[in-house]
Amino acid sequence: MYKATLIPGDGIGPEVIMAATSVIEAAGVDIKWDEKLVGQSAMAKYNNPLPEDTINSIETNRIALKGPSTTEIAKGFRSANISLRQRLNLYANIRPIKSIEGVNSKFKDIDMVIFRENTEDLYMGIEHMIGKDAAESIKIITREASERIASMAFSYAVKEKRRKVTCAHKANVMKLSDGLFLSSVRNVASKYPDIEYEEVIVDSLFMDMVMNPEKYDILVVPNLYGDLLSEMGAGLVGGLGIVPGVNIGVEAAVFEPTHGTAPDIAGQGIANPTAAILCAVMLLRHIGEKATAERIYNSVCRTIKEGKYVTKDLGGNYSTKDMTKAIIDNM
Ligand code: ATP
Description:
The protein has a 10-stranded mixed β-sheet with strand order 2-1-3-12-11-4-5-10-8-9, sandwiched between helices. The chain has helices at residues 13-26, 40-46, 52-61, 80-87, 143-159, 177-189, 202-211, 223-236, 274-286, 290-306, 320-330, and strands spanning 2-7, 31-35, 63-66, 92-98, 111-117, 127-129, 135-137, 164-169, 196-201, 218-221, 246-248, 253-255. The chain folds into 2 domains: 1-100 and 238-330, Isopropylmalate Dehydrogenase (3-Layer(aba) Sandwich); 105-237, Isopropylmalate Dehydrogenase, CATH 3.40.718.10. The radius of gyration is 20 Å and the shape is globular. Helices cover 40% and strands 17% of the residues. Helix 1 runs parallel beside helix 11 (320-330), helix 7 (202-211) packs parallel to helix 8 and helix 9 (274-286) packs antiparallel against helix 10. Adenosine-5'-triphosphate binds at residues 12, 16, 68, 70, 240-241, 259-265, 271-272, 275, 313. GO terms for molecular function: isocitrate dehydrogenase (NAD+) activity.
């Protein structure tokens, strides 16, 4: 039996996370879930969006499945998601962007994985006003963090038999910060002569990704560009409802769908559970339950391809529970 932390989250979070745990259970993998709170639900109970109790649970179990959560900015707390990444040193965000047959999207054969550096860049939130009419935000890039994300991307490429790693940057303008990121990735690339390596300026990558996305395989990017590219990548394969992700470090891995809390549809039981279920697939691969992971993945694809028992955003008329049941039946 495995142990993992379960964070249902806010909005549609509990609906889609429950779908994911029921699929894992039906597939026969025994996970003892330690349920904890983050975000709005944690605020309501502890007046703290990221309780210590939740951190302790993830530190102990080293694995968590988490729904989307929100932090009310007005209450003066930092985003619980950013704090969680910093507290647990989840230095990489990995997002597989893969076409699923039957999802309405402009492209068919996309299969890329984005490795986004998760701890620094403009996301460190080091900013201040200079007088009242100017603001300064500081971009931090270090060799250590850049080499760490690059090493993770290259070792994944070797392990998963991928063909190419692309580094996106803007070192032509930010010669020092992006220049350091680029030279760090290049340094790691030199240790992997069997993996093709290319460097692309991020603005031209954006253009090429909407024209020839099937050209890309593994992408390694600093934090901010990674945020933008991952969101666009989700759009290329048909939207946020189907894209999973993980924030991962040495000590822990937190699997979380890329979509938000979707307040407009929360509580209606109509959210698409695919992203959350594909998070469960990633979690199972991570703990070594590869065969079960493939079985669930194939079942998700089959259910979507058949196109009958799917949610509204996928062109169907069925509920989260109906779609989850169809996925379980197809297993
Ligand atoms: P947040 O502030 O938490 O990011 P948001 O509404 O700004 O919330 P999303 O939650 O990602 O951002 O939602 C964007 C749009 O996509 C909404 O219209 C939402 O209903 C839709 N959406 C997001 N996730 C799903 C899902 N799993 N199933 C169906 N629709 C979804």
